[in-house]
Structure formats: structure tokens, C-alpha cells
Write a structure and sequence with these properties.
The complex is a heterotrimer of chains A (182), B (129) and C (142).
Chain A lengths: L1 H18 L3 H21 L3 H25 L9 H4 L2 H25 L17 H12 L4 H9 L1 H22 L6
Chain B lengths: L1 H29 L3 H23 L19 H32 L4 H17 L1
Helix pairs in contact in B: 1-2, 2-3
Chain C lengths: L4 H23 L8 H19 L1 H7 L2 H24 L15 H31 L8
Chain lengths: 182, 129, 142
Amino acid sequence: MIDILLLLIIVACAIFALFMKDLLSATIILGVYSFIMATIFTRLNAVDVAFTEASVGAGITSVLMIAALSRTKRYEYHYTKGQRKKPSALFSKIMSLVLVIVTGAVLVYGTLDMPEFGDPEAPTNQHVSPRYIEETHHDTGINNMVTAVLASYRGYDTLGETTVIFTAGTAVILLLRRKKKV
Amino acid sequence: MADIIHIIQTKYYYLVVIFLMMIGLYATISSRNLIKKVIGINIFQISVFLFYIAMSKVKHGTAPILWDKSHVYDNPLPHVLILTAIVVSVSTTAVALALIINIHKEYGTIEEDMILEKQKLDIDRSNTA
Amino acid sequence: MKEHIIVRIVAKFFTPFIQLFAFYVIAHGDLGPGGGFQGGVILGASIILYVIAFGMDEGRKRISQKVSDILVSTGALVYAGIGILCILAGGAYLEYAELPLGSHHLASHLGMYGIEIGVGITVAFVMITIFFETAKKERTDS
């Protein structure tokens, strides 16, 4: 029951973030969206992911967005009625709606063949993960399987990811740092 | 009719994910404001995270932290993949915001239409000169 | 925020506790939820809180640009360096069990601690750097 309630709240958050004209409010609603998503992750027993989502998605992303808004504009440009009724603007809006509905229909069609929610026989749960679950303690001696897979079995992935963060930091420095006057 | 109810009952997480994904896609392609586009991308990304985590749930499973041999555990692999994806998503958001700040410095606006207009003006001016 | 005394005092009071929690999260990634990413982000957030309350210049006095730039790359180097150490100890890249640290389990445990610390350093200081660069005050006079 609570799952369905949380899912309804999250859908409402997404819709509000879409229609908000004030970008600061939209950013805060995005933070709420992330935080409720973290709650849903906890309900689905993904505690590590929920922790990360709460600290990264709800915390840092909101802070960065607000920092960016402080250097750009807070409000979306308010188009006048004439501009909004222009055929080209209307056409692009309808086209994007059609595109979204078609994509959604294709995805729903694909979902019909998916295994049921929580099915232990699903292919996702059959392939590599039983080995991780059974061997983790013997191989590494630690209890948190997520950390074991992250740091030990899939250490290369995490190394690549650290490199991605490092690259992002470097890119931001290159884009925004002002040169000192010589 | 019974089929449809069965599908909704057993797969409602996936259907909600698709709905959220489409909201994100719509925000990304239809809004003219660049920061709104970044918000749309974020909604899209987080819905994909939910998709993976929903796949990792096993009935009567507990969180993948070992404490008893005889327990059923959820699948830890999607958790690891999504842990990586969350941090990558904040990196992409940061770089996107840095680019938007630079665009604002250059053109004085973050609305797509106005940026295109200004570019057109610049091209005209350079042609006449 | 410089004129809000409540914000300043609360920020000053909470910063060390948030940092303590960040180190706890990094160190206990093997027992419960947590690890390098989460702990690093919390560590970064504590310093971002301090900067929001006291201003950019005060924050840069505590963590200079040079130090944060060096630490960003240090974390990634720690991670890659542990991999190289494993090769020198006779294993494959990132095969912690081969490190000469006593038993098999202890070595892999300590190796994992090492890379979690590396990830934590990189994540924390990248977040701080991105915040400093994004939120920098525009100087209108130039």
C-alpha cells in the first residue's frame, strides 16, 4: 500500500517539476523527487543505492542547480500569447507529444514480456548474482555484498567511474575557472 | 480485461517507470529553457535507476548484507551498477550546468530560441561587414 | 548569509559532526550500507555547508585552490596505485588478496579500504571544486 502511495507522490512530483515556471521551485521539486525515490529504494531493500541517491541526487545536484541558477536566470522566459499560438511553436509541441506517446507505447509493449515483479526465476536473478551471493564471504571476508562486488569483483568498473568523476571535475575547472590577470 | 488487471498488478513498478521516463523525455525535448532540459534529463535518469532496482527485487528477499546463511537475498548486481550510474549522473549534470553558465555569459540568455536568434544576427552582421 | 548569526553558528557547530559521520560511512562500507562515494559526498557537503554560511573567501582560506586541485587527482592515483601494488606483489591488477598483509582475507579487506579511501577523497574534492567554480561570484567590474 505504502509503495503505491510513494509511487503516486513521485509521479506528482515529476509532473509539477515539468510545469513549474519558476526554475528554483522546479529544482527544489527535483530534490523532493530524488528524496522520495531514495525512500522507494529503501522499500526495495537497495540500502546502498538509497543512501547514494539521498546524498548525491537530493543533496549535491540541488546545490549545484541552485548555484547555476544564481549565475543565470531564475525564471523561465514568459512567452506572450501571440508567440505561444504561433504555428511553429504549436507544431513542435504536438510533435514532441506524439513522439513521447509513441515511445511510451513501444516501451509498454516491451514490458508485457518482462518477468513479473519479484520473480526469483527471472533471468536477472539467475545468471551471475547467485555466485556473488554464495561466494562473497569466502572470497573477500566482508559482509556487505554490494561493497564486495563494487570494490573487488568489479574493481575495474569503479576505477573507470572514479576516472569519470575526475574528468568531470577537470572539465568544470577548464570551463569556468577564470585566469588570473598577469 | 482480467489480463490487463493482472499485468498492472504484477508489473506496476515498470509502468510507473515508463510514465516517469516519458515525463522526463517530454521535458527534455519540448522545453526551450536549458536548465529545464537538465531537470528533464535528471527525471529520466532517476526513473531508469528505479527500473534497475525494481528488477533486482526478489520476493521475500532481504537487503544484500550477509547475516545468516539460510536467507534469500536480493540481487546485488543491479545495486552496484546503479551506484556507479548515480555518481556518473551527477558528473554529467555538473558539466551540463557549467556549459549552460558559459552560454549565459556569451549570449545573456538560456532560452534556446533567443540563442538561435542572436546567432542569426551575428552571422548577418559578419556577412554585411 | 554572513549576517545571519543562527545560520553561522549552526553551520559551525554541525560541520565537525557531519565530517565525523562521513568518515564513519567510509570506514564501515564493509559492514553496512555506505562506502567511498557516500562518505565522500557527505564530506564534500559539510564543506559546502561551511562555504554557504561563511562565504567563498573564508572557505578558500580553509581549503586553498591548490590543495583541493591536488587532492582531486590524489584520490584517483591512490586507487590506481593500489592496483599497481597488487601487480608488484605478484597478483593481477587490483587483486588485493595477493598483497603481503598477513592472511588472505585481511589483505583483501585492507585493499578494499584503500580504494574506498581513494574514491572518497576524489569524490569529496571534486564536489567541492565543482561547487566553488559554479557558485563563484561574478566580478562585474572587469
